[in-house]
Design a protein that fits this description.
about 350 residues, Rossmann fold, 2 domains, 6-stranded parallel sheet, 4-stranded parallel sheet
């Protein structure tokens, strides 16, 4: 949303970025021209009336939200506000799988059923529905019983020039400067990113007699489990968890390979960001996104989800025969923010005249 907000500002639009709380790792990235509005509440029941009041007071032409629970709140708040505006929801993940991943107990299962019922009721009221990949759109259409032709697909934007500039910053880590092959992965330490498979792949690489190191950038609830696996596989001299890194791009730029081991995605922006820096990529062929970014393996190996041996072999093969960096960069440029923004502007104009 920050990239979109920045693009809309550059188009001369006035943008309010409304958040439940302004605490977070990305607050510093919000452009100064964007009006950051913190509702100061966290519970959904409390957010709804606050957001409705804000919409009633500010009278926006468009309300845009992303992530499925935020989308439900935004649609309900727009209706509650009594202000007539165009509402757009952005679905940035594979919703059915995201829900299944948290349905381990009865409480979450009930929440999921309620969320699906609300999506089926509220999403058809949205002026526009945007998914960040064709796979995610197909999934949402089936889950919410929405006609597929009523869902637009617009890929997530990357700020190509900004990524290039940020990648030029210096980083201080001994593995960056030595001659040993370096793999980088980035993302929250959660079930979705399936880092255990990546660690098993690194153990396979070790068994094959190859010296390769891995830096994982991110934090999350699975950190202790991953630390235990690193110890179990005797990878302490080959794998390091660096925690949250505000600027991951220098690490991506200096890596010999970027790996995404996810069990599912909405798109997989980190692949695009790595490719924008000319860094080779390997990914699981997870639902959904990586196969669209990498054109079914044209721009890098796609491996079956959970296949640690296949992932390990793909790491070795790519390190031995990396693809042409310029082709990767050219592919990433098709996701550059100005191009994506044009698609959003066209959507807003089309829907506002419908």
């Amino acid at each position: 949303m920050i990239n979109l907000a920045r693009g809309f500002i550059e188009r001369g639009m006035e943008v309010d970025l409304v958040v439940s709380s302004d605490e977070g790792d990305y607050r510093h990235e919000v452009p100064a021209q964007v009006r950051l509005v913190s509702l100061g509440v966290r519970r959904v029941a409390a957010v709804l009336p606050h957001l409705a009041r804000h919409i009633r007071r500010r009278k926006p032409q468009f309300v845009m939200s992303r992530m499925y629970r935020s989308n439900l709140v935004a649609l309900a708040a727009a209706r509650l506000s009594g202000h007539r505006c165009s509402s757009f929801v952005i679905v940035d993940n594979t919703t059915s799988i995201e829900m299944a991943a948290v349905s381990a107990n009865l409480r979450n299962t009930i929440k999921n059923h309620l969320d699906v019922a609300l999506m089926r009721r509220l999403y058809p009221d949205a002026t526009g529905i945007v998914c960040v990949s064709h796979g995610a759109a197909d999934d949402l259409a089936k889950l919410c019983r929405i006609a597929r032709q009523n869902i637009d697909v617009i890929y997530n934007p990357i700020e190509f020039d900004k990524i290039q500039a940020m990648a030029a910053q210096c980083v201080d880590h001994p593995w960056i400067v030595d001659e040993v092959s370096l793999v980088v992965a980035a993302g929250r330490l959660s079930a979705q990113k399936d880092y255990p498979t990546l660690l098993k792949a690194m153990a396979h690489v070790k068994e094959r007699g190859r010296l390769v190191r891995l830096l994982i950038l991110g934090q999350g609830e699975h950190q202790r489990r991953l630390e235990e696996l690193i110890s179990q596989f005797e990878l302490s001299d080959r794998v390091a968890l660096l925690g949250f890194i505000p600027n991951p791009f220098p690490y991506m730029k200096r890596a010999d390979l970027f790996v995404l081991s996810s069990a599912w995605e909405g798109l997989g922006n980190v692949l695009i960001e790595a490719m924008a820096l000319g860094t080779p990529v390997v990914s699981t062929n997870c639902p959904f996104g990586p196969s669209e970014i990498m054109r079914d393996g044209e721009f890098g190996h796609l491996v079956t989800v959970g296949d640690h041996r296949g992932l390990g072999e793909a790491i070795i093969e790519t390190l031995d025969a990396p693809p042409d960096a310029e082709r990767l960069i050219e592919r990433a440029q098709s996701f550059d923010a100005p191009r994506i923004l044009e698609q959003y502007v066209a959507l807003l104009e089309r829907m506002s005249h419908a």
